[in-house]
Automatic annotation (TrEMBL):
It holds the Pfam family FTHFS. PROSITE patterns: FTHFS_1, FTHFS_2. Gene3D superfamilies: Domain 2, N(10)-formyltetrahydrofolate synthetase, Formyltetrahydrofolate synthetase, domain 3, P-loop containing nucleotide triphosphate hydrolases. NCBIfam families: PRK13505.1. Pathway: One-carbon metabolism; tetrahydrofolate interconversion. GO terms for biological process: tetrahydrofolate interconversion. It is an enzyme of class 6 (ligase). GO terms for molecular function: ATP binding; formate-tetrahydrofolate ligase activity. This is Formate--tetrahydrofolate ligase. InterPro entries: Formate_THF_ligase (IPR000559), Formate_THF_ligase_CS (IPR020628), P-loop_NTPase (IPR027417). It comes from Corynebacterium gerontici. ATP binds at residues 61-68.
Length: 548
């Protein structure tokens, strides 16, 4: 059996101008990066007219459940059915690529290509974000070293450096050691690039001017009087915007089925808002008739943030939603250990299906009746598939088997038909930010996570007072939470209920336009597993091997 990278490398790609022509994108708006990649300028695009289909998932296993694979297969099926389909998804991060989860370009015969480029450096957007982020960190340190005119309290610097690699040793560091000439010693740390506020700003900005204005509003520290210090106070917004000038334009590639794909931005959904750029989604809606986009992890994370943060900011309507489920994940949520997930376990499936039911209920909270896509694996047992079909029939849920990994668009044709039958929904948000940050957190916790209460730490309460004092209490919230559970305990699988959500810290992300609530033990810099995927990657005669 061929690996994903072998399938991708054997495919003859269309020239990027051919892909752009499928969407009637004018040639002057296409900025080629070689023969198979391009950036698209966003000026003078037509009015929005496309349908928007959101693909989300159930609570995953650590390996992921193939959400991108299903989405790409669905897009190719839409193309084969005569629709002018466009994929609009996130760029992969090197952290998971080199770590445990792998890339985010799909798999098998349902991929976006060139997958090696997309999963590694692509067009350099992540490098631009990392450079802008770390330039700001250097400017802050230099300002303090050069006399600290703004009176920045080094104990209250909230801006961290970042890099696009999982590295637990950088979570807590001290900079400026080595004497007076080396700067002022400061306790700080690194986040992964996907968690940087610059990433969130890129993904929510509407144009370059908006990007610069958002960067100017970023709060980097407090002064000795406890007042916020912003990028505008440091006069650094121009330099950071210059570093991001090209990165703001969406990237155009293609699927194995020849469907155009806009791949842009890449915040994680557990530690950030988990959606591709608003600019890419908006561009896709202007050039395509149907746009397939995704939100990271399950409905409790990426999908909730899609509706309450991204759709609110971009005035987007979600016309239809798909929940990707796998039998292995439902068995995992039913208590089956990872090394036994390929074994027949109908009783565990019966116990774990409550997780799928909860995700269906969550999507209904936003005004949409979802379609469940059962991403099939060869080791799924007939008895398990029959149980799920019967469960869906009993619950009044549309459940469609998908074999996109094996058959590409042909394996998602039934799913495409099911989606088109019910894509006339009017979506809405879950809460009103005017009610305040605390109320918004409690609404998400009780309605989406089914928590009985929310407990704020002493620091979180102090953060809340700071947020209110500065007039930020009406911003939307972005809850940082484990992807494996509806609670903040990753071991509490299934459909956790009646738990207490523990908020340990609130981070005002004024440039992005939301407040991050850190819960449980979620960290913004992941670590590598014992056997990272990086160990299996090699280059032979200039060809990359082992990349999934």
């Amino acid at each position: 059996m061929q690996s994903d990278v072998e399938i991708a490398q054997a495919h003859q790609l269309d020239a990027i101008d051919t892909i752009a022509a499928k969407l009637d994108i004018p040639s002057e708006a296409v900025l080629p990066y070689g023969n198979t990649k391009a950036k698209i300028t966003i000026d003078n695009a037509p009015q929005r007219h496309g349908k928007l289909v959101l693909v989300t998932g159930i609570s995953p296993t650590p390996a992921g459940e193939g959400k991108s694979t299903v989405l790409i297969g669905l897009a190719d099926a839409m193309t084969k059915a005569g629709h002018k389909a466009v994929v609009a998804i996130r760029e992969p991060s090197l952290g998971p690529v080199m770590g445990i989860k792998g890339g985010a370009a799909g798999g098998g015969y349902s991929q976006i290509v060139p997958m090696e480029d997309i999963n590694l450096h692509f067009t350099g957007d992540f490098h631009a974000i990392t450079s802008a982020n770390n330039t700001l960190a250097a400017i802050i340190d230099n300002h303090i070293h050069q006399g600290n005119e703004l009176g920045i309290d080094v104990r209250r610097i909230t801006w961290q450096r970042c890099q696009d690699v999982n590295d637990r040793s950088l979570r807590h560091v001290v900079t400026g050691l080595g004497g007076k000439a080396q700067g002022v010693p400061t306790e700080t740390g690194f986040s992964i690039t996907a968690a940087s506020e610059i990433m969130a700003i890129l993904c929510l900005a509407t144009n370059l001017d908006d990007l610069q204005q958002r960067i100017a509003r970023v709060v980097v520290a407090q002064n000795f009087q406890g007042e916020p210090v912003t990028v505008a106070d440091l006069n650094a917004q121009g330099a950071l915007t210059a570093l991001m000038r090209d990165a703001i334009n969406p990237n155009l590639v293609q699927t194995l089925g020849g469907t155009p794909a806009l791949v842009h931005g890449g915040p994680f959904a557990n530690i950030a808002h988990g959606c591709n750029s608003l600019i890419a989604t908006d561009t896709a809606l202007r050039y395509g008739d149907v746009v397939l986009t995704e939100a990271g992890f399950g409905s409790d994370l990426g999908a909730e943030k899609f509706f309450d943060i991204k759709a609110r900011a971009g005035d987007l309507n979600v016309d239809a939603a798909v929940i990707v489920a796998t039998i292995r994940s439902l068995k995992y949520n039913g208590g089956v250990p990872r090394d036994e997930l390929k074994n027949e376990k109908v009783d565990a499936l019966r116990a774990g299906v409550v997780n799928l039911k909860r995700h269906v209920e969550n999507i209904r909270l936003f005004g949409i009746e979802p379609v469940v896509a059962l991403n099939e694996f060869t080791f799924d047992m007939p008895s398990e598939r029959e149980f799920l079909q019967q469960w869906a029939q009993d619950e009044g849920v549309t459940l469609v088997p998908v074999a996109a990994w094996e058959r590409g668009g042909d394996g998602a044709a039934e799913l495409a038909e099911a989606v088109t039958r019910q894509w006339d929904h009017r979506s809405h948000q879950l809460y009103d930010p005017e009610d305040g940050v605390e109320a918004s957190i409690r609404t998400i916790a009780t309605k989406v996570y089914h928590a009985r209460d929310v407990e704020f730490s002493k620091k979180a309460n102090n953060d809340l007072a700071y947020i209110k004092a500065n007039g930020w209490d009406t911003l939307p919230v972005c809850i940082s939470k484990t992807q494996y559970s509806f609670s903040d305990d990753p071991s509490d699988l299934g459909a956790a209920e009646g738990h207490v959500l523990h908020v340990r810290e609130l981070l005002p992300r004024i440039g992005a336009g939301f407040v991050v609530a850190l819960t449980g033990d979620v960290m913004t810099m992941p670590g590598l597993p014992k056997r990272p995927a990086a160990e299996g990657i090699a280059v032979k005669n200039g060809t990359i091997t082992g990349l999934f």
